[in-house]
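Researcher: Good morning. I'm working through a list of sequences from a screen, and I'd like to move beyond sequence-only analysis. For each chain I'm collecting a predicted structure so we can compare shapes side by side. This is the next one on the list. No need for commentary yet; just the structure.
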Amino acid sequence: MKPLARYFSMTSVIRLGFGLAALVAPVIAAAADSCAADARGPSPDSASRLSDYPTFCSIPSAPTDVRGAAAFKAEVVATRMAGARLVRSTAPDTFSVAGTEAFAAGARADAAPPPPITTPSQSDTAAFVKASRARATPPARPH
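Model: Good morning. Structure tokens for this chain:
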């Protein structure tokens, strides 16, 4: 019925787990020792062994000045509430187009009239042309 049951018993799985843990433990201990050595700085005899590749010890620790999940949630809730207020204040029922004539009449009464249009005199025009010609410089001649 169960032909593979004798190969995969619970005791063999537990033995396999302990065996793997026993094999990996020295590697983890050596990595921890090398990280502690990296924290103290390189020794003179290990300077020749330094390579250009980063190690797991060069991974920085997790930052501590990051806001938590509750602060992120509060900011998201505040943003969504502001969005809901904006939608509520700009709903189609909040605007009316009644009373436009009274508004236009009030705006016309408050507005200052534009200055009257004046035509420049002949002497003003001649003086402007003379000053412009005196300021103008001809373009350079091509060589």
